[in-house]
Amino acid sequence: MSDPVLFARDESVATITLNRDDSRNSLTDEVIEGLLDAMAKAEGDSSVSCVILTGAGKAFSSGGNLRDIGAMTAEKGMSPLDIEAWYTNGIQRIPLLMEQLTVPVIAAVNGPAIGAGNDLATMCDMRIASSKALFAESFLKVGIIPGDGGAWFLPRIVGYARAAEMLYTAEAISAQKALDWGLVSQVVEPDDLMDAAKALAAKVVANPPFALRKGKEIMLAAQRMGLEDSLAKAALTQGVLQQMEDHQEAVHAILEKRKPDFKGR
After folding, report:
1. How far is the C-alpha of 216 from the C-alpha of 103, rounded, in Å?
2. Is residue 125 packed enough to be buried (19+ CB in 10 Å), middle (13-18) or exposed (0-12)?
3. Positive or negative CA dihedral for 223, 224, 228, 232?
4. Max CA-CA distance within the chain?
5. 3-state class of 205 per DSSP?
6. List of residues 6+ apart from 163 with CB closer than 8 A
7. Residue 66 above 90 pLDDT?
């Protein structure tokens, strides 16, 4: 059987593809492990400056596997503590890792992003959608709540009221509504999706690689800090960045009206 998650490199851009089209890229244990490994691989490679995350086939991800979830109590007789441990040691490792990444991640949402699939998209820094994409925070339809961080990520992107509407109605929204609500930044035709994602990635990786990762790091940290602490972290980071060769190269390239040649140092 083919790998559950594919990893490909094109210079400084890595593409990670959920590769279980037959299950609409549901987040089974093997897909979770493959995704964690692929993201860690990208994070650990300083020559990677952007990641594109997408799904094989017609879906981005259908989320958790309903048969597996239903079997927890119906067949396996798992206790509440057993189920808590399953979430903690399984799917919840994805949001925790995604929030530690310093490499920017673009979600290229090629089709339905349902439940945990929707939440996975929200864990990315940027989202581009195919016109055939759908987004649903659909957990209540099956009598559960977002167990993978969706209640944390989604309101920070679309605001509390819209996130509440998505959760409490459990209804899917179209790619166009996702654009209107700020859940995605672009909607393109299906055949143009990867080209659009690669074009955005090219704009990202045109910047100094070390500063790029520090930029993401400070953006994430700022969400959990007061203004004074955020300013202090920014000042400290600037002190490092302004000593680097890439900073001087960027300044000289702008003044000399030429393309910069960054070395990552």
Report:
1. 7
2. middle
3. negative
4. 69
5. helix
6. 137, 151, 154, 155, 157
7. no
